[in-house]
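INFO  loader      accepted 1 record
INFO  loader      residues=303
INFO  predictor   begin
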Amino acid sequence: MLKKMPDRLLRRAAPLALLVTLLGGCATTQSATTGGWLTPEPLAVSYRTELAIARLTEILYRAELSEEQSAQLYYDRGVMYDSVGLRSLARLDFLRALRLKPDMADAYNFVGIHHTVSGDFDSAYEAFDSALELAPEHEFAYLNRGIALYYAGKTELAVGDFERFLALKPTDAYRVIWLYLAQSELSAEQAQQQLQQRALILDQAEWSTNIVRFLAGEMTESALLDSVMQDLSGPQLLAERLCEVYFYLAKWHESKQQPEQALEYYKKVLATNVFEFVEHRYARLEMARLRGENTSPEGFDEP
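INFO  predictor   done
INFO  writer      dumping tokens
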């Protein structure tokens, strides 16, 4: 299972015990360097994940379950669908879970994320507010609501959520980065100063700190890309790092009025197939914004 809580940006509930062994394997990929770009093969869906989805489906339709048990199974299957990029199937399951168990904060969090991706920001706020009303300690709902506010252009409100999220773990580089991105919309100079200050307390041994160092002007773009290859434990980690680094390099190039370079990096993010990472989720939304495309809400009806 990917390392997402609390160190990554997307909160996920623990999977069912009976499925832990099914998800033990991970997809494999290889990488190549082409014209100065690190290019991974897109991650493939693990057959274990497909099998786990099939077994959950069988349990849902054949076993005698209470409404609460069914809600949990729909939620767990939704998380699996989401992790392999089947967003429409995932959100249907999250809505089914909420219909059976209306107080499931984690499901509201995911529903809010999907509303954000589809451009329905008002519905996203409502979902995240519901999650926080049910579970005020649900820290990742602050992050995800902040992202929705950020993309909706409500930057000052987004900064407030990002600050609260960072305060819960000041040594997390990704929390520092998202607050910096929002603050940069208000004052680039002040955001840069605060970024440099926050960088001082980050763990220099963590690879993600390199992204902060780059944004703070302490590392070149080529050095940041070279750092991706350091201390790799396997091809999956390479794809994950590339998903992250290409997204934040795209944001940087966009800030430098280099939209074409930013678009190329966003395409690289999508090519990793690391669907459950925040960076992959919002790469298409970023591309639509750069191209001036309409991001009006998609249909999102309950089954």
